[in-house]
Specification:
The structure is a single chain. By secondary structure, the chain is of the alpha+beta class. It has a single domain, classed as YaeB-like fold. 29% of the residues lie in helices and 31% in strands. It has two helices and four strands. It has a four-stranded mixed sheet with strand order 1-4-3-2. Strand 2 and strand 3 form a beta hairpin. It is elongated and about 40 Å long. The N and C termini lie far apart (46 Å). The mean pLDDT is 86.
Length: 102
């Protein structure tokens, strides 16, 4: 069974903005988001809103951290995960916007 990991989800408009970036910037942003995923997995997760960071000079990314849809129900605590799952694997990073700063 594959190990479950925290997810990274780009909204449709953000996905278009990501692919409009030059390939080198795409790679740097992807590496930045992978580092955030690793932090999320090691910290155990938790819903967070309105997070942002300048991931390279003159470019910012905005995101929330939410439970993955399959874990959402009337009781917001994550369901028991397999022992191979990482702490924050029930969560995902939802990228809301990629913006060039003035």
């Amino acid at each position: 069974m594959a190990e479950e990991r925290a997810g990274i989800y780009l909204l449709k408009k953000v996905e278009a903005a990501f692919y409009a970036l030059p390939e080198a910037r795409q790679m740097r942003l992807a590496a930045f988001l992978e580092a955030r995923r690793a932090e999320l997995e090691s910290s155990g997760g938790g819903n967070k809103e309105n997070l942002s960071c300048e991931w390279e000079p003159a470019f910012a990314v905005y995101w929330d951290i939410q439970l993955k849809p399959k874990y959402r129900d009337a009781n917001p605590k994550p369901k028991a995960s397999p022992s191979s799952a990482k702490l924050g694997s029930a969560y995902r990073i939802v990228v809301l916007e990629i913006r060039r700063l003035p």
